[in-house]
Write a sequence for this structure.
């Protein structure tokens, strides 16, 4: 039995004192692994979000405090709406090679590392830090805790005993915990999540910066697109299903690009009667990217009908066809799911 | 020196071990006061919000668990958008008289009790539980802690040592902490606030119910009004000032009433360039209720120019006149404030 397999967490294991001890061993090991290495590669997933950036940057700062040479990379462009992060321009700024240690953060499986997977796999030691239940344990040591809200909460747990968290690192970890929980609204918000956030705030996490630079940093253009998106809403099945549509013309009129559509689906979910919200984003003529969100029924089944996939409460696919036909098919894909 | 004056909290006192001891005495006293009483009147402020309802209902449930007869009242109608609260219909359902103890929650001064002030003042014992810095200490015993986020956080501190918080009480207290901090976004969110929320969640607070019944319980009508409110936005001074206008015609077209305008000003504040957001709500022909929100400058000065008032970051007034004149005056009221 190797450490990697032992550290896979299950509900049964959580209450097992033997497992608890091993977890403590694991928590010691991540800092020890960093200490033993000279050059470290940290990789987060493609199209990085606040949690992957927060956890990756936090570990980079920790390793640098310990005198290590660190590159933090992703197989995507830097996401501009996170440019407020102090060290933002260090992402993808590759300086080193010949890494002793590779750390993957927030990557549910190895394909999420994109082109960096081969470099990661060449490292003599590799660590996989994640919170996705479906994680395929691709590294030599896997710290995968599906009961945790976010990779940042896992990182917090792994390093909080080591007196290495300064205000900047606390801010990075807080950012990831906050964004991955929908600012403490999603059901992955547990007492431990809020306790970690509390301690990070005490360690100097800059909540005001996170709120003003991320949550209250809409552009005029995006807020105008929001109005148009709301006005596009169509309701079906006694207002249980809402479909909003973002056309390329709307983006153009508002001076927005595709990244500005992030989060618009939440306006559908904010309506009390709605059980399933759908956002159709026009990709090309007669081709729509379709995102489903659900408050209960399994929308991955609906997305699967069009060759897509996802989770029970959040799924997506691409549907081609005339607008009205696509709308009709989407409504049917949801109602079929309900019928089951 | 009586207990009432001793318990006024100041920054200097907070670090004083003598004060800390007294605070512990105070915390013991609230449950003791309830235990000594048979009939209790709890009053929250007029036009109650989530914090006043949460703290009042939580104390009612605690007192009832201790076998007491309790009325919880406000000098306003029950606010229908809080009807999801389990015990909602107990508000203003007056059954008793001849109270031994009056408790005011979340009332910054005695005028906030409205018509209930005279009944409150007749109680042989009175307690004032609040978190407003300006509280005028109107009761015999005053538990006023301005460093706390909310009345609910104060109540949590006062009763958390007594093993009386069940899941329902935890949900009520969590509701108030969450709503008064803008769901942990406002700068009154402290490490202690998140620690209290963490413990309440562990005690069974129903976060999912709060999120679905409060934060995600918009009506179709309200979300359509939101779109119209966004479209009404006008920007001034290089987008530093945004003014949105809600006319009576808009409310009528959307099937909304005045309570649906709550929170709309936040869309202005969500824009990165904006330092001051203003919402003008048409009251009568040529009369507007004006709300100011600020990210830094003191908008109470602006509101004061029209005979209104408020706090540095949130203030309001009524301005009469033709629409364009009112807009011009409002912009001037803000820019004059900046010039100072």
């Amino acid at each position: 039995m190797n450490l990697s397999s032992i550290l896979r967490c299950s509900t049964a294991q959580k209450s097992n004192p033997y497992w608890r001890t091993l977890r403590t061993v694991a928590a010691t090991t991540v800092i020890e692994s960093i200490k033993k290495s000279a050059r470290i590669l940290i990789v987060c997933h493609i199209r990085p979000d606040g949690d992957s950036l927060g956890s990756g940057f936090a570990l980079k700062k920790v390793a640098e405090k310990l005198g290590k040479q660190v590159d933090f990379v992703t197989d995507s462009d830097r996401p501009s709406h996170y440019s407020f992060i102090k060290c933002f321009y260090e992402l993808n700024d590759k300086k080193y090679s010949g890494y002793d240690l590779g750390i993957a953060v927030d990557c549910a499986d190895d394909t999420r590392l994109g082109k960096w997977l081969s470099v990661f796999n060449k490292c003599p030691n590799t660590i996989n830090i994640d919170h996705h239940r479906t994680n395929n344990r691709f590294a030599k040591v896997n710290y995968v805790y599906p009961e945790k809200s976010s990779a940042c909460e896992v990182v917090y747990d792994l390093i909080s005993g080591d007196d290495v968290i300064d205000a900047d690192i606390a801010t990075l970890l807080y950012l990831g915990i906050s964004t991955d929980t929908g600012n403490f609204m999603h059901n992955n918000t547990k007492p431990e999540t809020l306790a970690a956030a509390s301690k990070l705030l005490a360690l100097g996490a800059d909540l005001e910066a996170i709120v003003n630079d991320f949550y209250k940093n809409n552009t005029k253009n995006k807020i105008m697109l929001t109005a148009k998106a709301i006005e596009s809403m169509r309701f079906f099945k006694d207002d249980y299903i809402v479909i909003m549509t973002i056309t390329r013309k709307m983006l153009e009129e508002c001076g927005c690009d595709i990244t500005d559509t992030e989060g618009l689906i939440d306006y559908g979910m904010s309506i009390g009667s709605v059980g399933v919200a759908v956002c159709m984003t026009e990709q090309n003529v007669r081709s729509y990217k379709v995102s489903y969100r659900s408050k209960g029924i399994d929308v991955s089944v609906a997305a699967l009908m069009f060759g897509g996939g996802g989770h029970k409460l959040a799924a997506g696919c691409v549907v081609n066809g005339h607008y009205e036909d696509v709308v009709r098919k989407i409504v049917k894909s949801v109602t079929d799911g309900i019928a089951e």
Notes: Residues 1-25 of chain B have pLDDT under 50 and may be disordered. The CA atoms of residues 98 and 117 of chain B lie 15 Å apart. The domain at 220-339 of chain B is CATH 3.10.310.30 (Diaminopimelate Epimerase; Chain A, domain 1).
